[in-house]
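Re: the 487-residue chain
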Amino acid sequence: WFVVHVYTHCTTHGVYHCKSTSLTLGIASLISFPLAFLVGAGLIVRAVFLDGAVEGLKNYIAQWDSSIFTSVHLWSEATGQVIYTLSIGLGTMSAYSSYNSRSQNIALDKTVIGVCDVVLCLMGGAIVYLVLGYLHHHCPHAPAVCEQYFNEQGITLIFKVYADALSEIAAPTLWGALFYGMVCLLILGTVYSVVMATATVIRDSWFADYLKLGTKTTTFYVSLSGFVIGIPLMFDCGSSWLEILDYYMRNWVLIYVALIQSVGVGWIYKSDRQYRRAGKSPVLCYNIGCFLTVLVPIVVGLNLVDSGHSVTKSRYISIGLAIAIFLGSFIASYILMDKDRVRKTKRNSLWTLVGWHGADNLRKIINSKPARRWFPNNFNTEFDSFFNPAKVSIVFGFCIKYAIPGCLLATLISNIHYNEFKSTSGYSNEQLLLGYVSFGFVVLISLVVFIYPRTMSHPNEMAEDVSVAGRLEWVFTARPPKTPLPG
């Protein structure tokens, strides 16, 4: 954590404070991540020439068990892993993007980030399995023990099995230093981004403005807090606590945060446009109906399976229930819609109700160029954006409003209902309480922000009273409704 603090201090203050080369946020990332790529590529080249590497590679990419593709747990784990590796829901992308210029092509950036993430994940898996193949070929233990190595995962795989494998090859110190050095670089980049994201949120708050907390002081306290929180993980039971936190953060917390973010963009952002064009009652009726279309069938289906009904029967009942709820809410919303108001706005009444207006507004901002404005829902512009990787297509709108929230809600409910980690890990309820409390804390914070959005407001928006009591009263007071413009 001391290294992380110095690293963040250097990237934000440069040569005067650190007596070293001035580093910016982008240059710091350009140093750590490409270096990790180079080290990983070197490890792959070395591992390819080990005995048994081909066997390890077959276990990695050539042996498929198609039966597990119907497992909810598999897709839950995959979803959590993707959200974690892309830093979705951690606030790091928001913190990084705040340093971009307005002309930055973030549509192209998201493509590059996604491709690099996939390549790095494939490289990491190849590095591990190539060496595991060698370990299986030169097994220092009983054959059954080495056979089980391919089924290990997480902390056990990296810090126990892989360390055992590296000790069996020539020059183990060199390759061990390279591998764990690569891991440290990746961890440094991840922790650094989390520190910067947390410090950015704190620094922009009214609390930091009142206490006159600068960037240096804020990053110091954030790093110190991380150090204090990490102390219990250094004891004998630290790996167990880390495993519990890792599971619940990936499979509960991050999925929940990604869910509310997608709901915020797809269903809440620019919803006032729908209210003005179609009326508030039909829009709320449709939105709540869509939410119940996912929630009710999942809950009913899971309870039917738990009661002893077949999976096929439960699935058909859930699908039928979902169709009935959606059609009922859609018809009711369409009947309640103020057709005259929609006609005056010269908008399609169906699109006014079911469209993704917030996502279209974001696409308009992202896809527009200084010399040329881009408009959604036009055949020529949509056709161009669909095949242009530097633009955000209409698929984004459908995914952010319907596909992603539905899948994430189904995944989160399934994870909470089954909680397979509880049955397979062997931990007691008292030990798992750490994961439950972490999830509950995040839910509580999100509800506070949802009910009192002024908690995330800039201090300049506050009233004239600058006392602590005045600030708190302003923060925890609902925003007054906007006054309509004359005429």
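The chain has a mean pLDDT of 78.
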